[in-house]
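The record is passed on directly below:
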Amino acid sequence: MIISPCISICKMDPSTGYCYGCARTNEEKKIWKLEETNNEWKQNNLKDIRERLTGWQLKSFNESYRYKVNNGISLFKKNLKNE
């Protein structure tokens, strides 16, 4: 099972149409939720996401996504719990 790249920063950039947190389009977000979406598509989408991000955004996404995969919760949600 491939974990969704959502890292709980759900705001869309009006210029690019990409989410500031996960760099997906709204259409890609919908496709992730479909039961028939296969792992190959998800792996390719994760690759596309990483190619869209650069610098601190890519570093932040990678850190947050890795944490989510390993712990089942995004860093953003973890930090909210600790406040």
Remarks:
- The mean pLDDT is 94.
- The two ends are 31 Å apart (CA to CA).
